Sequence to fold (320 residues):
Amino acid sequence: MIRSLLVRGMLVGLAAALLALVVAWIFGEPQVGHAIGFEEHQAALAGEPPEPELVSRSMQKTLGLATGIGLYGVALGGLFALAFAFAYGRIGSFGARATSALVALAGFTAVELAPFMKYPANPPSVGSPDTIGKRTALYFGLILISVLFAIAAVLIGRRLAPRLGNWNAALTAVGVFIALLGVAYLTMPTVQEVPKDFPAVVLWRFRLSSLGIQATLWTALGLLFGPLTERRLPHRSPATAATPITTA
Amino acid sequence: MAQTASPQSHSQPIPVRIPVRQLLPWAIFAAVLALLLIYFVGAEQGATSLIGGHYVHEFVHDGRHLLGFPCH
Ligand SMILES: [Zn+2]
Fold:
């Protein structure tokens, strides 16, 4: 059964990646093009010879982009299926659809949104090649920290639920997550490497489209995975349940 | 307030947890595979490199930037 969940997760991830790819083509690629134009213009002004193209631009923005987002979608779908399998039946009595949507919401927040707000996506020509090692470590480090905080918040929420009720326990968990994240934001180093003359509009639109691509991917994953798996999941009907439904 | 068993609640199935023992082997296997894929899209030949040259980096370059991974 886990194998079937995993395969479905990866297939739904691929479908979600296709939708994200459409967003990337329409909103993301024009900004990548502007950024590369800026980079070439700066290089020409500095009198540097143009860099040789290892992979052509037309290849990068078609097959390359599709491969990158497709692989990412499949991998994310697999991890999502596992997170779902752990969460199902453990975060309350939510069915498959609600569990899937909640896991996707938590996943998007912890894996994408929280790291993005500290270390947002950058178009080509923003970011110095000398600091790539440090920036990569900080970005992946913050994803890990944010996921651990989210897990801690869920565990705290589950613990408080019997005493505070589900709603207040969930609110407390969200509060704990935000507080922990705030501490991480304040203690981790800031990265500011936007070139002085880089067009603000291109940067803004690029970052917005990056967030839009990720939001599309996670939303599609969260909404499609539940209905496609709910019939395969173990459940019992209340009629045959150990504790009969009491009527008063 | 009295709890009533409506036809709605009768048809609502109760989710049953999947045992962790059953989940763990799959979780380890799939997580390793997925993280490897994400590594190739997000980091290979940027800060770290398993394969020589820059072909992988250049090929998935647009995806790497647009998905929000650090680059350049
Ligand atoms: Zn780049």
